[in-house]
């Protein structure tokens, strides 16, 4: 049945600690948004069998998001190999693109869209690590508004939060008011309640901004691409990329702090990215575009139902 919580937790931690992105922030400087986009554009049309410098970063990108079926594939070369082709096909299927396994234009365009840093696909640990036939069992594509097996127990439905001492990006009153609204949004559709912890007290959820590598194996990457991430229960860390241009009233080149916060709280509560609900607040790359007004009654009831199923 469902893997033990401890297994899944360690799987998530192991998967993402195997390939640390330590070098990436340095390699892709200084204007990361432009570099990463032009880096991706430079890869367009590369064929299987070719060896091209930079492919290893693409592999790391795909692996971090869960598109490699096995966490024991080591990414040491810049060859366009079978594993990369398979990872690309999985990516294309996830985003409803033509499943070509090629670095075609629509795939590159999709990768250029800013997104959440959490994976789209959760690789669950294999009970038979040496068996090739078990590879498919290891690979679990998250197809719905998925709940992981990591949950808060009902005794922990009254969650507290506090703001950490990371990089100061947004005024503390602004951040406090944005987060308070975002938590209220979730409180309406879930059995959870949220309260800011009293000063100096510990809290279940800690919210802060960081720049680049900040020690949790999910380094940020300068402007664009990865905007934020938040860990599954009962971790409680929510991090924003301090290098984004955040706003509470976003212009075209800015990101809306509240929408992103609502999305990330979903992860804190145990939600994974959803493949087949691109309109959902919890899809992987809808962070910059989802309007809170789209968080309508239909989706509220969907969330509510899920939480009640989860609570049983
Ligand atoms: C998929 O391929 C078809 C036929 O080549 C093409 O018309 C269509 O635009 C492609 N779709 C995407 C999303 O690239
Ligand atoms: C996997 O490991 C088991 C027990 O450790 C062994 O019996 C089996 O032959 C191994 N299978 C392969 C494919 O190596
Ligand atoms: C952030 O966006 C605003 C509005 O578009 C712009 O005026 C400002 O220069 C941007 N700041 C940075 C650091 O890019
Ligand atoms: Zn996310
Ligand atoms: Zn982080």
TrEMBL record:
Xref: PROSITE patterns: CYSTEINE_SWITCH
Lineage of source species: Eukaryota, Viridiplantae, Streptophyta, Embryophyta, Tracheophyta
Protein name as it appears in the record: Metalloendoproteinase 2-MMP-like
A molecular-function term among this protein's GO annotations: DNA binding
Alphabetized UniProt keyword annotations: Calcium, Hydrolase, Metal-binding, Metalloprotease, Protease, Signal, Zinc, Zymogen
Keyword Signal: yes
Binding site for Zn(2+) 1: 214, 216, 229, 239
Family (UniProt): Belongs to the peptidase M10A family. Matrix metalloproteinases (MMPs) subfamily.
Organism: Populus alba x Populus x berolinensis
Signal sequence annotation: 1-25
Annotated Ca(2+) 3 binding sites: 221-222, 241, 244
Pfam family, one: PG_binding_1
GO cellular component: extracellular matrix; nucleus
Domain of life: Eukaryota
UniProt: Ca(2+) 1 binding residues: 244
Binding site for Ca(2+) 2: 204
GO BP, one annotated term: collagen catabolic process
Start and end residues of each Peptidase metallopeptidase domain: 148-309
Active site: 264
Co-factor requirement: Zn(2+); Ca(2+)
Amino acids binding Zn(2+) 2: 116, 263, 267, 273
Cofactor note: Binds 2 Zn(2+) ions per subunit.
């Amino acid at each position: 049945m469902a893997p033990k919580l401890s297994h899944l937790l360690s799987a998530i931690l192991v998967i993402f600690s195997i390939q640390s992105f330590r070098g990436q922030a340095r390699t892709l400087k200084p204007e990361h948004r432009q570099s990463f986009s032009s880096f991706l554009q430079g890869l367009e049309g590369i064929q299987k069998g070719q060896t091209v410098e930079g492919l290893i970063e693409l592999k790391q990108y795909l692996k971090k998001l869960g598109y490699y079926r096995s966490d024991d594939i080591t990414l040491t070369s810049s060859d366009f190999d079978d594993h990369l082709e398979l990872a690309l096909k999985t990516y294309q299927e996830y985003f409803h693109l033509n499943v070509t396994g090629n670095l075609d234009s629509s795939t590159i365009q999709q990768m250029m869209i800013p997104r959440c840093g959490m994976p789209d696909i959760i690789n669950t640990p294999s009970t038979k690590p040496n068996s090739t036939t078990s590879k498919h069992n290891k690979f679990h594509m998250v197809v719905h508004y998925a709940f992981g097996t990591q949950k808060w127990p009902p005794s922990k439905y009254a969650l507290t939060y506090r703001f950490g001492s990371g990089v100061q990006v947004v005024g503390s009153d602004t951040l406090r008011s944005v987060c308070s609204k975002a938590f209220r949004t979730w409180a309406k559709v879930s059995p959870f309640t949220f309260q800011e912890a009293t000063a100096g007290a510990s809290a279940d959820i800690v919210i802060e901004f960081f720049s680049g590598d900040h020690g949790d194996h999910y380094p940020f990457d300068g402007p664009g691409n990865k905007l934020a991430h938040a860990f599954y229960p009962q971790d409680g860390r929510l991090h924003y990329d301090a290098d984004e241009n955040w706003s509470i009233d976003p212009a075209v080149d800015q990101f809306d702090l509240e929408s992103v916060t609502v999305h990330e709280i979903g992860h804190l509560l145990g939600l994974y990215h959803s493949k087949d609900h691109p309109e959902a607040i919890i899809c992987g790359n809808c962070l910059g575009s989802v309007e809170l007004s789209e968080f309508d009654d239909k989706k509220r009831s969907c969330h509510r139902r899920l939480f009640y199923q989860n609570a049983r």
